[in-house]
Amino acid sequence: MAFAQTRYPLLRLRLFRIRTFRVAVAGGFITRLGVGGLPFLLPLLYQLGLGLPAWQSGLLMMPATAAAMLMKVISAPILRRFGFRKVLTINTLNDRRDDQPVRHRRAGGRRSR
């Protein structure tokens, strides 16, 4: 195979022999397909699954579009100010907090005892 003998390949195909690398690449590929398909599949769900008209389906997609546009503008200054590691750590902790089971939450955000 001529491609495997390139002196400085962009991706060494031998990496795919490592199970964790294969699983990570496959999982990332499937996740990327799912996230990439959301702008196309959600309007279908709204219209075909929930019976909403096209204009309401479009309105329901507007917050996600506005959020993506806003993050495009503010993400670079945030990363410059706080640094990538700190932003990633805070985001990870925030996501972890959101993953707590509902039974441990009360109105007002306090945990039940």
Describe the structure.
66% of the residues lie in helices and 0% in strands. With 113 residues, it is mostly helical. The chain is extended, with a radius of gyration of 21 Å. The chain starts with 18 loop residues before the first helix and ends in a 15-residue tail after the last helix.
Gist of the model:
The protein is mainly alpha-helical and 113 residues long. It is 66% helix and 0% strand.
Query: Which spans of ≥5 residues are poorly predicted at pLDDT below 50?
Result: none
Please give the largest β-sheet: none
Number of strands: 0
Assign a percent range to the helix content. Answer: 55-70%
Distance between the termini: 64 Å
Query: How many helical stretches?
Result: 3
Query: Could you spell the SSE succession in H and E letters?
Result: HHH
Percent of residues in β-strands = under 5%
How much is the average pLDDT?
86
What is the overall shape?
extended
Number of domains: 1
Reconstruct the topology from this structure:
Blueprint: H1 19-49, H2 54-82, H3 84-98
Helix pairs in contact: 1-2, 2-3
Task: Provide tags for this entry.
single chain; about 110 residues; mainly alpha; 3 helices; about 65% helix; extended
